[in-house]
Amino acid sequence: MKSRLLHAVVCAALAGASSVALAQGAYPSQPVRLIVPFAPGGSTDVLARAVADGLRKQLGQSVVVENRAGAGGLIGTEAVARAEPDGYTLGMATVSTMAVNPLLYGTARVDPATQLKPVGSVANVPVVWMVNPAFPATDFAQFLAELRAHPGKYSFGSPGVGSLGHLNLAAMNADLKVEVLHVPYRGMGPALTAAVGGEVQVQQDQYASAQSLIKAGKLRPIAVAAPTRLAGLPQLPTLAELGYPQLNALGQTWFGLVAPAGTPDAVVGKLNDAVRQAMADPALVQRLAGLGAEPDTGTPQAFGQRIAQTLAANRKIIETAAIKLDE
C-alpha cells in the first residue's frame, strides 16, 4: 500500500514538473503586457512602443503597451511588482523608477531588489548640458570658469525636487566645485521654457527633446553625457573626455525591462534573448536614433548590477545634498 502511494506521489510530481517545463518551453502562448509607468507621449512611452514592436517580431506574440502613470512612476512599477510572475507582464524600468524613487519614497511600496527581476537593459539616452545663449561661454572651459568666478549667480531649472535633473545638478555642483542654484518647475517642459527665456541660465535635458531647441539656437550645448560623441553634434565633447567620467555616467539616462520577482529564469532568459535580437535590428536601431537613443543590451545580471551601481551613486548624491521631497 505504501509502495503504491509513494509511486503515485512520484508520478504526480514528475507530471507536474513536466507540465511546468512544457509551459516554459511553449512561452509565450498569449500576448505580453508591457507596463509603462509614465503618461503616453513621453520619451519612456515612445521608447517602450519601439521596443514592443521589436519584441513582437521576436516572440511571435502581441506586446501590448499599457500606461500606468502617477506618483513619479510608482503606480506603474507597483502594478508590475504585483503581477503574476509568469512572463506575461513586464515593466519599463528607468533610472527614476529603479534608482531614485526607492531612495526618496522608501521601499515600502516597491523594493526593486526583492519585488522585481531584471530582464535586461534596452537603451541609453544621452543628456546634453546647455546654457541660455546670453550666458558668457561658448565651450565647457569658459562655462566652468564663469561658474567658478560667480558662485550663486546662475540658476538651473529642473522638472522638480528629487528629479534626475535635480540629482544631476547636485552632482555637478559637487564634482565641478561650483554653486549653481536649483529652481524646480512642474515638469521638463516649463523648465526648458524657463531656460529659453533666461529665467534660468543652465539646463540639462535628453538629446531627443533638446535637439530642436539647439538647432534653433535657443539653447547652446556645452557638453554631453554619453558613451561617445553624438553624430548630430560631433564637435560636442563628452564629460568623460573633459575629465569627469562619473558625471558622464550619472548623466546618461538608461532604460530596461523588468519582470515580477519569481518569474522563471527560463522565461527571463527567453525574453532577454528576444530583447537582444530586437535591438540588433537595423530598422529598430535607426528608429531609436531618431529618438536620440542608442541600443544597449546585456544579461539580466549585468542590468541588475547597473541598477545597483546607479542606486549607490544616487544615494550618495541625495545624502550629500540633503535632498528631500518636502524641500
Could you characterize the architecture of this molecule?
With 327 residues, this protein is of the alpha/beta class. The protein has 2 domains: 164 residues, D-Maltodextrin-Binding Protein, domain 2; 125 residues, 3-Layer(aba) Sandwich (D-Maltodextrin-Binding Protein, domain 2), CATH 3.40.190.10. The chain has 14 helices and 11 strands. The strands form 3 sheets. It has a 6-stranded mixed beta sheet, with helices on both faces. Helix 2 links the parallel strand 1 and strand 2. The longest helix has 24 residues. The protein is globular and about 65 Å long. The chain starts with a helix and ends in a 6-residue tail after the last helix. About 6% of the residues have low confidence. This is ABC transporter substrate-binding protein. Belongs to the UPF0065 (bug) family. Keywords: Signal. Pfam families: TctC (PF03401).
Brief descriptors of the model:
11 strands; 327 residues; BUG; signal; alpha/beta; single chain; 6-stranded mixed beta sheet; 3-stranded antiparallel beta sheet; D-Maltodextrin-Binding Protein, domain 2; 14 helices; ABC transporter substrate-binding protein; Bug_dom1
